[in-house]
Design brief:
Blueprint (H helix, E strand, L loop, with lengths): L14 E8 L7 H13 L4 H9 L1 E5 L4 H6 L24 H14 L4 E12 L5 E6 L4 H7 L1 H9 L9 E3 L8 H8 L5 E8 L2 E3 L6 E3 L2 H18 L18
Parallel strand pairs: 1-2, 1-3, 3-6, 4-5
Antiparallel strand pairs: 4-6, 7-8
Helix pairs in contact: 1-8, 2-8, 6-8
Length: 250
């Protein structure tokens, strides 16, 4: 094995963790396809996926609201709660999935051997086009600038991702969301985002060239999200390249 293999699994090694959640709003079905794209890519034999597995730990909760999905609800759980407003104090009885995931995140955050570096919550948007992100606002300008790096890199990798639609806010209405709550809980080396993707289309060259989203296009966005971690952590040099073919001599 190469010397860099499974760096994050060596005894005593410090783990860099990327935590991804999806489908907290059951009606936002595109988020499941994006999440599926991330999962399929990460477990594949792709050389980039192998490098990512060797250097990062991905924790993925692909469906935070399974009872709402089963019932065909658009936004709420079985108990009628919008789970994405209860991150601050989830009840183990009324919001069990949220309570469990939050406890896991807190346990990892308190573990000195784990660096919880990213939290990304995947949603779908009913009025805007393309993929885009919401991030948090911080008083520390340098931290704020660092937070913009990942969406800028994703914009370079995914033609349907829009950095111009990406915004950073501290809207009081969103205070109970995963992105807002965890952004205030975790340290200044953790980045928390909401990844939104349009229900219907993305624009490539202006408002007249809208391309309808398909399941495959959503999954492609997911693959591009995963690939962007390679650029973010500057691991490109570790990707095994296919051997160059030698032209046959006559």
């Amino acid at each position: 094995l190469p010397s860099f293999a499974a760096e994050n699994l060596r005894p005593g090694a410090e783990q860099k963790v990327v935590f991804i959640t999806a489908r907290v709003h059951p009606g936002e079905t595109p988020s499941s396809f994006v999440c599926q794209g991330i999962i399929d890519f990460l477990v594949s034999h792709h050389p980039i996926a192998k490098v990512l597995r060797d250097h990062l730990v991905f924790k993925i909760a692909p469906m935070l609201n399974p009872d709402g999905v089963y019932l065909g609800n658009y936004r709420c759980s079985l108990m009628g709660f919008d789970l994405n407003r209860h991150w601050a104090n989830p009840s183990p009885w009324a919001h069990p999935t949220l309570h469990g995931v939050k406890q896991l995140i807190i346990d990892m955050y308190n573990n000195p051997k784990i660096n919880l570096e990213f939290y990304i919550d995947i949603h779908a948007h009913s009025t805007m086009m393309n993929g885009f992100m919401y991030g948090n606002i911080f008083e520390d300008e340098e931290r704020f600038q660092r937070q913009a790096v990942f969406p800028k890199l994703l914009c370079q990798n995914a033609e349907d991702f829009s950095y111009s639609s990406t915004s950073f806010n501290r809207d009081a209405v969103k205070a109970g969301t995963g992105r807002r709550f965890l952004g205030g809980l975790l340290n200044d080396r953790s980045y928390c985002y909401t990844l939104e993707v349009s229900f219907y289309s993305y624009v490539l060259d202006g408002p007249t060239s809208a391309v309808p989203y398909t399941e495959e296009a959503y999954m492609k966005l997911g693959r591009n999200v995963a690939r962007t971690f390679l650029d973010y952590y500057r691991l490109n040099s570790l990707v095994e390249r296919p051997p160059a073919t030698t032209p046959k001599t006559r």
